[in-house]
């Protein structure tokens, strides 16, 4: 049986997005709302990732609201107004109060990352976006130095999609970024983390909690009605060596700092509920090319201690959609035209990335002098609400202008 000519034509869209993570999906929704058609290529077969929670800050929550996804996100996640920092011995060093912020979403929201992705897949598809699951980006189709589409592979078969704009939303190891040939600075952190979703923790309602100690860090955040997101620093140990010590030993390590976690491991019988990762700090000097733009973790990857990766990615998506719309109207998708996106967004990514790098190095240092300074600064922040508000504005991603050195020095760089 012969195939029709229509079936032999390559796929076409206004924008082809590589990846169907949260950044890509948000961009697709925003573009579709503007009548700009999108196709997303995702190498995974469905939105399944490592078992983890994801914390949204006020800046990211504002974008979820804009996408029409905040209501449902609040149903599947948990809101916290207080971010509590405790010492390993249990002393409360700081109760950072998000209600100090002048913002309609003055709270944190933690949810299961996979559920959030499924929700955004639904919103994007409802808006008319097409997600091609199980398709892997291979290369950019170039014509006289301009992107005209991509080649992808699906089940061993190569095919093409034509589009005047290619967006690389393919995460920290972005292949689109490699094709763009930009300068990438990568810093791998020495400490690794185990993350996972465990059972509910009594007394944690409305609170996200972090334990700090030189060389140690433990985060616990309510994440939906029956779950808690756990984020635990295992130092330089490999996943294999933590596994060899056993789940019982890992649980004891967590409970030593956070006795309230004693019953949360019921039902966690296997390591499959936990994931291991080593964070990195990736800085990219150029986010755009002729007909190409990088979005989310492919443009900037921070230490998750900042809790800003996904939030900045969501904001990037809104701005990129606006710039692409302008480019479409002008019929110009050149690097110069797309540069407006980078100009608007890169400064914020630089501020947050550096702040995250500084705060995590400070918080995880095993130097006792730094520990004393850190604690002093946390206590100061606890008392001085004006300063606390300033620190929270950076954490929440809602600062108006780049904070000066004096402000940063006063804050002491302790808040994530
Ligand atoms: C353990 C952990 C905890 C975190 N916690 C937080 C947090 O609490 N708050 C926060 O703001 N941020 C957090 N982050 C960061 C946050 O997860 C990322 O910033 C965010 O998910 C970035 O989204 P993205 O869409 O840019 O990239 P990704 O989510 O990485 O999506 C990229 C997608 O591209 C696909 N892809 C890759 N290569 C190809 C290819 N060749 N072809 C087709 N598809 C491809 C991948 O399969 C993936 O689905 C955390 C990160 C980690 C690792």
Would you mind describing this structure in some detail?
By secondary structure, this protein is of the alpha/beta class. It folds into two domains: 10-67 and 114-187 and 280-353, FAD/NAD(P)-binding domain, CATH 3.50.50.60; 79-111 and 190-277, D-Amino Acid Oxidase, subunit A, domain 2 (D-Amino Acid Oxidase, Chain A, domain 2). Helices cover 38% and strands 28% of the residues. The protein has helices at 5-8, 22-33, 58-67, 70-76, 113-126, 175-180, 239-245, 247-257, 309-330, 335-364, 368-383, 385-395, 405-411; strands at residues 11-12, 15-18, 38-42, 53-56, 78-80, 82-87, 92-97, 108-112, 130-133, 136-143, 146-154, 157-162, 165-168, 184-188, 192-198, 207-213, 216-222, 228-235, 274-277, 280-284, 288-289, 292-294, 300-301. The protein has a seven-stranded mixed β-sheet with strand order 7-6-16-17-18-15-19. It has a six-stranded mixed β-sheet with strand order 9-3-2-13-22-21. The chain starts with a helix and ends in a 5-residue tail after the last helix. The model is unreliable at 1-9 (pLDDT under 50). The structure holds flavin-adenine dinucleotide. Flavin-adenine dinucleotide is lined by residues 18-24, 41-44, 52, 54-55, 136-137, 169-171, 175, 195, 277, 296-297, 304, 307-311, 313. Residues 18-24, 41-44, 52, 54-55, 136-137, 169-171, 175, 195, 277, 296-297, 304, 307-311, 313 line the site of flavin-adenine dinucleotide.
């Amino acid at each position: 049986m012969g195939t029709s000519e229509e079936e032999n034509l390559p796929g076409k869209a206004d924008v082809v997005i590589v990846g169907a993570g949260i950044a890509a999906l948000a961009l697709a929704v925003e573009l579709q709302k503007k009548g700009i058609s999108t196709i997303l290529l995702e190498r995974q077969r469905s939105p399944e990732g490592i078992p983890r929670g994801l914390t949204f800050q006020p800046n990211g929550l504002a974008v979820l609201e804009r996408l029409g996804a905040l209501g449902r996100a609040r149903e599947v996640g948990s809101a916290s107004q207080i971010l509590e920092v405790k010492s390993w011995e249990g002393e409360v060093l700081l109760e950072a109060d998000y209600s100090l912020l002048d913002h309609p979403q003055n709270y944190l929201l933690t949810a299961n990352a996979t559920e959030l992705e499924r929700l955004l897949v639904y919103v994007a598809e409802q808006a008319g976006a097409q997600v091609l699951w199980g398709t892997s980006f291979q290369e950019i189709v170039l014509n006289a130095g301009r992107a005209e589409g991509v080649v992808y592979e699906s089940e061993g078969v190569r095919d093409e999609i034509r589009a005047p704009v290619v967006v690389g939303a393919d995460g920290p190891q972005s292949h689109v970024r490699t094709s763009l040939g930009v300068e990438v600075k990568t810093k791998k952190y020495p400490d690794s983390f185990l993350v996972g979703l465990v059972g509910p923790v009594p007394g944690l309602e409305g609170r996200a909690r972090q334990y700090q100690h030189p060389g140690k860090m433990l985060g616990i955040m309510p994440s939906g009605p029956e779950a808690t997101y756990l984020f635990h620093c295992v130092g330089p140990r490999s996943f294999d060596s933590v596994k060899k010590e056993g789940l019982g030993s890992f649980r004891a390590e967590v409970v030593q700092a956070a006795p309230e976690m004693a019953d949360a491991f019921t039902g966690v019988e296997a390591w499959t509920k936990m994931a291991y990762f080593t964070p990195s700090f990736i800085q990219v000097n150029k986010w755009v090319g002729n007909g190409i733009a990088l979005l989310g973790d492919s443009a900037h990857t921070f230490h998750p201690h900042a809790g800003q990766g996904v939030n900045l990615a969501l904001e990037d998506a809104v701005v990129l959609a606006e710039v692409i719309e302008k480019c479409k109207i002008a019929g110009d998708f050149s690097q110069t035209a797309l540069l407006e996106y980078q100009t608007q967004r890169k400064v914020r990514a630089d501020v947050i990335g550096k702040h995250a790098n500084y705060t995590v190095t400070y918080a995880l240092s095993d130097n006792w002098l730094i520990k004393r300074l850190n604690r002093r600064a946390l206590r100061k922040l606890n008392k001085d609400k004006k300063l606390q508000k300033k620190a929270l504005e950076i954490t929440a991603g809602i600062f108006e202008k780049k904070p000066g050195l004096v402000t940063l020095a006063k804050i002491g760089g302790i808040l994530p």
